[in-house]
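Case study: Exonuclease.
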Amino acid sequence: MKNILIIDVESTCWQGKIPAGMSSEVIELGYAILQEGEGVLEWGSFLIPPRHSEISAFCTELTTISPETFVLEAEKVVQRSDLLEQLNALTRRHGWHNFKSCQWGSWGDYDFKMLVKTFGEQELRKDHHLNIKQQHAAERGLPKALGMGQALRFENLELQGTHHRGGDDAFNIARIARKVLGW
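Here is what the predicted structure looks like once written out:
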């Protein structure tokens, strides 16, 4: 059986320029385990408290994540220093040795770049990453890659959950990936 881990990250963001002293950092990591012939086996998300940035009103409007979210969804909160071990435990449950050894994908390369920023290059293998956005465009013969919402509509799928929430987006990306991969 083939599995793929789908990841979607949400990061601190601002409308316009990034304020002085702040940087974009992962505040939510959504995941979905997609298995050939079975569909989505498991999905969810981890909330990661920001270290160097504040969550802007714009970010909250876009993602629904606010400082209060870390209290209201406390069961999902993982400290940045523990996030890699949580991903290792998740991937081991589904037959991989660890996160670094698993096949994983995301909608574009942004998530890969943000995970490199979070964990460092030594914890990731680019050859294990599938850019589902590019593959979708190529498989469907599209002249330009679509956004996730557009791709859902193109595939006659309805958005499930809340757009720009990591777990929900990972689940929706997995649904698109299942069609693209023919699973």
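For the exam, be able to explain this: Residues 166-181 form the longest helix (16 residues).
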